[in-house]
């Protein structure tokens, strides 16, 4: 192999250093420019729409207002130290949709990427094709709305499963006592829809098709966020505070903002 002339080698070295050092500085300038241009609320909207558009979530069927709730909660859970520093996975389940539809989305917020969109069951106490009633009561066999943080994997009566901790007092904090977990179930997926005209239903667990159960569990285990949305005038959450989320974003330019804008 030919040796490069000394002068050319030095020039290439200087150029490479310049390129590597330029990118973070440019990102910082862009972020500071946005902060000076927009209010905190506008900055939050910009952040949310950037991820929504980049991950092509509208094309996948995820409503913008549902995603806004989910990402607001994701940020507020970070503020409340409920998530590890590097946590970037957000799962959205929208029970305003028919069980015929793929109503679970697993999103990488940092990389603005849709990892998986699939079917998910609701509790048989919540309704047939549509989930219309929700509860956190033991033995209600209903789905519970709100924000969850995933925990560890274990093997139980439904095979490999993922434990969940409910974050919304009065709406899903009995998840452990009720054994509300993510697991695979043969009554979820295209075959079930073809046989009975809708998905089967669980005892309240967000059960997924068995062929993607391991993929789902591996993607969202170990302290990531799940947000379950549904039609309920009763549901409210402190994690839906847009003001706190907006302030956090505008003051955390070295965190999730820098990686996502």
Characterize the biggest β-sheet: 7 strands, mixed
Low-confidence segments: 8-31, 256-261
Can you say what the CATH homologous superfamily of the largest domain is? L,D-transpeptidase catalytic domain-like
Q: Strands of the largest sheet, in order across it?
A: 3-2-1-7-4-5-6
The tally of strands reads 7
The CATH architecture of the largest domain: Beta Barrel
- Distance linking N and C termini: 42 Å
Number of domains: 2
The fold-level CATH name of the largest domain is: L,D-transpeptidase catalytic domain-like
Helical run tally: 9
Roughly what is the average pLDDT, rounded to an integer? Answer: 87
CATH top level assignment of the largest domain: Mainly Beta
**What's the gyration radius in Å?**
22 Å
Report strand %: 15-25%
Descriptors:
261 residues; alpha+beta; 9 helices; 39% helix; seven-stranded mixed β-sheet; 2 domains; L,D-transpeptidase catalytic domain-like
Structure overview:
By secondary structure, the protein is of the alpha+beta class. The protein folds into 2 domains: 7-37; 38-260, L,D-transpeptidase catalytic domain-like (Beta Barrel). The protein has helices spanning 6-37, 40-54, 57-60, 64-79, 175-178, 190-196, 213-220, 242-251, 256-260, and strands at residues 89-94, 104-108, 113-118, 146-156, 159-166, 181-183, 225-229. Strands 3-2-1-7-4-5-6 form a 7-stranded mixed beta sheet. A hairpin with a 2-residue loop joins strand 4 and strand 5 (159-166).
């Amino acid at each position: 192999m030919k040796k490069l002339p000394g002068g050319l080698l030095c020039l290439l070295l200087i150029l490479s250093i310049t390129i590597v050092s330029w990118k973070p500085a440019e990102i910082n300038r862009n972020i500071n420019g946005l902060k000076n241009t927009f209010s905190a609320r506008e900055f939050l909207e910009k952040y949310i729409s950037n991820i929504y558009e980049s991950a092509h979530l509208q094309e996948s069927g995820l409503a913008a207002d549902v995603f806004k709730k989910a990402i607001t909660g994701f940020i507020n859970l970070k503020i409340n130290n409920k998530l590890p520093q590097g946590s970037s996975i957000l799962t959205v389940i929208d029970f305003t949709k028919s069980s015929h539809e793929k109503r679970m989305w697993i999103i990488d917020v940092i990389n603005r990427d849709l990892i998986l969109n699939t079917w998910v069951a609701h509790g048989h106490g919540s309704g047939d094709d549509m989930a219309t009633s929700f509860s956190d009561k033991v033995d209600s066999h209903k789905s519970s709305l709100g924000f969850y943080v995933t925990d560890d994997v274990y093997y139980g009566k439904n095979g490999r499963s993922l434990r969940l901790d409910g974050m919304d007092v009065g709406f899903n904090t009995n998840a452990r006592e009720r054994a509300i977990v993510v697991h695979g179930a043969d009554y979820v997926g295209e075959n079930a829809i073809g046989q009975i005209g809708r998905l089967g239903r669980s005892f309240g667990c967000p059960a997924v098709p068995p062929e993607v159960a391991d993929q789902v569990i591996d993607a969202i285990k170990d302290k990531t966020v799940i947000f379950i949305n549904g039609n309920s005038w009763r549901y409210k959450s402190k994690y839906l505070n847009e003001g706190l989320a907006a302030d956090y974003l505008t003051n955390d330019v070295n965190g999730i903002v820098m990686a996502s804008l």
